[in-house]
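Quick one, probably user error.
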């Protein structure tokens, strides 16, 4: 396995989209910066702090584009991410996955190393495990209670009596309650933007109601954290919310396009692939990017427009009409026209290169060790940015 380090490549010596080995993960830094500026500006207008989720990028280089002034508050989905970003100078971190008791010692090690860490729980049992560990005298992370705002996954309903029980147990055991956190995961079921403002309202209202109940029971609740990429872009009023989290916004993907959050031209991530064969009798073109490069994610399968394993573009990132990766095996992708299309299959020669826009940027990114950086329609690869892996 190749070990990648951040590399800035001199213009004269830079590889290009014509010369890098495929499949390769391509990141358009101009679109990245544009997407970041769009959401930052929107949240500034709403008067709420931003805690971006770096699980999509898993890259210090990308995180530094989020915070050109240095570092700032981030959200992570694994303790390995927390350790990695802490090593790069990020010290205000929320670990937004339910805390397994056996990971408490590792979380405490981050706190001991100077990280202001928040952890997420939604049960009295997790609270008891934190309290038991605190008896050893270690510095403890702050705690956020997960709130279920839409029945999507974990968390407590705002009216669940366990909400106050958890807070009571933490307080009695000397562990700091930081606040509440929720995620409107069901916003991903919306289409063409319809229902997203209402999902954002429901997300906000659930978090605020939970915070009110905690405060009425005598507990401080300084953090009211909400966020998903769809609701972050469609929220109308975030009064009372202290911070917003979002992750895939920086790259966007075909799922976000289908939900109605972004245009195809906003997608910053693609997989570069090479044409390796033809099956004209089947209407197929074969490429060297299968599901190991694109991922198995079929997140648009239930959308009105099914994008297969990804939307096919020319080398500059311009989509062909109705051309998708229709099927994939481990290292082969099968390009074909979308069912029912009246478009013409393009003539792509052996060795010609295409770019595949992914269904789910997080899943596709996870298949690769590094980004090759381009800007806009340019072909020069100006840098290699490594990605981290692990849990």
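Nope, works fine. Designed sequence:
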């Amino acid at each position: 396995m190749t070990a990648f380090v951040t590399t800035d490549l001199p213009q004269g010596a830079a590889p290009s989209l014509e010369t890098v080995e495929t499949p390769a993960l391509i990141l358009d830094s101009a679109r990245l910066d544009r997407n970041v500026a769009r959401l930052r500006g929107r949240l500034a207008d709403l008067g709420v702090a931003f805690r971006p989720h770096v699980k999509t990028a898993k890259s210090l280089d990308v995180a530094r584009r989020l915070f050109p002034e240095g570092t700032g508050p981030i959200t992570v989905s694994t303790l390995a991410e927390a350790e990695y970003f802490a090593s790069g100078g990020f010290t205000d971190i929320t670990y937004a996955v339910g805390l397994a008791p056996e990971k408490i010692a590792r979380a405490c090690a981050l706190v001991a190393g100077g990280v202001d860490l928040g952890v997420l729980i939604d049960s009295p049992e997790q609270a008891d495990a934190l309290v038991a560990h605190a008896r050893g005298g270690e510095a403890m992370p702050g705690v956020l209670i997960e709130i279920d705002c839409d029945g999507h996954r974990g968390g407590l309903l705002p009216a669940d009596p366990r909400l106050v029980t958890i807070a009571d147990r933490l307080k009695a055991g000397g562990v700091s309650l930081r606040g509440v956190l929720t995620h409107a995961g069901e916003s991903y079921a919306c289409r063409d933007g319809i229902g997203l403002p209402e999902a954002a309202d429901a997300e906000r209202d659930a978090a605020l109601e939970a915070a009110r109940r905690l405060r009425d029971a005598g507990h401080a609740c300084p953090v009211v954290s909400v966020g998903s990429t769809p609701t972050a872009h469609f929220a109308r009023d975030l009064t009372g919310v202290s911070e917003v989290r979002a992750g895939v916004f920086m790259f966007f993907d075909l799922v976000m396009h289908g939900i109605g959050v972004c245009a195809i031209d906003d997608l910053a991530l693609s997989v570069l692939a090479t044409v390796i064969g033809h099956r004209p009798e089947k209407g197929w073109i074969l490429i060297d990017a299968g599901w190991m490069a694109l991922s198995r994610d079929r997140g648009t399968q239930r959308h009105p427009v099914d994008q297969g394993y990804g939307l096919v573009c020319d080398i500059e990132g311009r989509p062909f009409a109705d051309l998708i990766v229709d099927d994939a095996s481990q290292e082969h992708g099968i390009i074909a026209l979308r069912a029912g299309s009246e478009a013409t299959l393009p003539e792509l020669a052996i060795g010609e290169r295409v770019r595949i826009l992914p269904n789910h940027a997080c899943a596709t990114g996870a298949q690769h060790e590094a980004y090759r950086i381009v800007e806009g329609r340019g072909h020069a690869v100006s840098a290699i940015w490594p990605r981290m892996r692990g849990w």
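The chain has eleven helices and 18 strands.
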